């Protein structure tokens, strides 16, 4: 624990057998209380590898529910296990577990309720091998989102995220998409609820085993991001009332 707060790491996994052990081995268990692995109907032996590593909390989807659907299972179970701080770490080793302490302490010490590991602060993205077209998309989408949402994040598209469980309980993330746009809907919900978000510089790695989406899905994701930002904008103006910005019907 940190300052008496229970820290749980959630690992949303899909075909992560080759990288799970490396990721898991670098988790700082001197402060981490529990790890949750959610397998989204992988085609490899991700679940077996997780059991071999001694992960006790493993949840397996009978069908592939998508990246957003995986996260819903992650957060719902983290709250059920009594987490005070939840950090999502991709088990494909694209993000280093060595930032867990820095992210967790910002929340544990009540500095910020949400912390993102940004690949754009510094030179992490291109240096780590992010494809140039994705970098351009990232910068263009982030600029547009900051304008529509009146924020100043360096990026909205990182998968390295830490949350106070209070935030998770107050936003309606279960109403979000099961696809990749879930991430952006979640950030929009957090801002809509009035929370602030911190960012720290995060190196990243792109390699064959690291998960990534192709150009076609990137375009679909980009359109979803723009739709989410416009939805936020019009909800803030009071012109529409979207389900994702409503309070959860009950705590999970």
Question: Overview of this structure, please?
Answer:
With 252 residues, the chain is an alpha/beta fold. The two termini are 22 Å apart. Helix 1 (17-25) packs parallel to helix 2 (46-52), helix 6 (132-149) runs parallel beside helix 9 (215-236) and helix 8 (182-192) runs parallel beside helix 9. Strands 3-2-1-4-6-5-7 form a 7-stranded mixed sheet, with helices on both faces. It is built from 9 helices and 7 strands; from the N terminus they run βαβαβαβαβααβααβα. 40% of the residues lie in helices and 14% in strands. It has one domain (7-245): Spore Coat Polysaccharide Biosynthesis Protein SpsA, Chain A.
Structural topology:
Blueprint lengths: L6 E7 L3 H9 L8 E6 L6 H7 L4 E4 L5 H15 L4 E4 L11 H9 L5 E5 L5 H4 L4 H18 L11 E4 H6 L11 H11 L4 E5 L13 H22 L16
Parallel strand pairs: 1-2, 1-4, 2-3, 5-7
Antiparallel strand pairs: 4-6, 5-6
């Amino acid at each position: 624990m940190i300052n008496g707060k229970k820290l749980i790491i959630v690992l949303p996994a899909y075909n992560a057998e080759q990288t799970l052990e490396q990721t898991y081995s670098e988790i700082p268990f001197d402060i981490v209380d529990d790890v949750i692995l959610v397998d989204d109907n992988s085609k490899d032996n991700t679940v077996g590898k997780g059991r071999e590593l001694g992960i006790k909390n493993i949840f397996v989807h009978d069908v592939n529910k998508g990246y957003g659907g995986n996260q819903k299972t992650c957060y719902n179970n983290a709250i059920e296990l009594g987490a005070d701080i939840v950090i999502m770490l991709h088990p494909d080793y694209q993000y280093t577990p060595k930032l867990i302490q820095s992210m967790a302490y910002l929340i544990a010490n009540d500095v910020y309720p949400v912390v993102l590991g940004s690949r754009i602060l510094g030179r992490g993205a291109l240096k780590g091998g992010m494809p140039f077209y994705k970098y351009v998309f990232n910068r263009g989408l982030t600029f547009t989102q900051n304008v529509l949402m009146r924020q100043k994040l360096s990026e909205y598209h990182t998968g390295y995220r830490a949350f106070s469980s209070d935030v998770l309980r107050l936003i309606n993330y279960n109403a979000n998409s099961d696809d990749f746009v879930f991430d952006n809907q979640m950030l929009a919900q957090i801002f809509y609820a009035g929370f602030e978000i911190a960012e720290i510089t995060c190196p990243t790695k792109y390699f064959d085993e690291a998960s990534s989406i192709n150009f076609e899905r990137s375009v679909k994701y980009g359109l979803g991001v723009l739709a989410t930002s416009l939805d936020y904008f019009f909800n803030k103006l009071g012109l529409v009332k979207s389900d994702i910005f409503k309070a959860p019907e009950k705590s999970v």
